[in-house]
Amino acid sequence: MIFLRQMHSAFTALHRLAQLSHFLILAPCVGEFKLNIECNHATLSGHSCHHELETARINGLLGNIDANTGDPQVGWDTDQFLVDIQEATMIMLSVIRNNGIAPGGFNFDAKLRRESTDVEDLFIAHIVGMDTMARGLRNAAKLVEDGALAELVRKRYQSFDSEIGAQIEAGKADFDLLEKKVKEWGEPKVASAKQELAEMIFQSAM
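Structure tokens predicted for Xylose isomerase (206 residues):
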């Protein structure tokens, strides 16, 4: 029963942000509301914080960030201080692409681990949390200025800039048209996604 409850909670959280974004777009409420994204809730939903931030950003709904994180091996809100430089870099990439999140910002909705019982632990936690976000911003700025990672992403999805790709993206292509095109083109030539190169470029900015 506990396992089923955890599965249901994860499934519910998994779709909540996308559903809320879709609702606000259809309402229409974009421009009236912004979303506060909590990284720990992304962990609980089986997503990365970057995934949730990008979902909000591309829908024009990114407004504030709870700068915390969770333990992927447990099924509850641990609200830990963010100390992962790579995750902080991905978070800041979303912030830069969003041209900032003003008038929102970052807040440390975070707590000490239960084993940390000294007063100085709270002091250290806030310092390392702020330093992590600062290093993430510097890394993200380096990646944006370099442009190599963005170019790989552009090439990976460049088929959506083609005539048929643009029609699909605009919702103007039906299955009859797609069937006709497939028969005309024959077997597709699959281009490499260059995943390892993308990871190397990302790691070089750390």
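Residues 1-11 have pLDDT under 50 and may be disordered.
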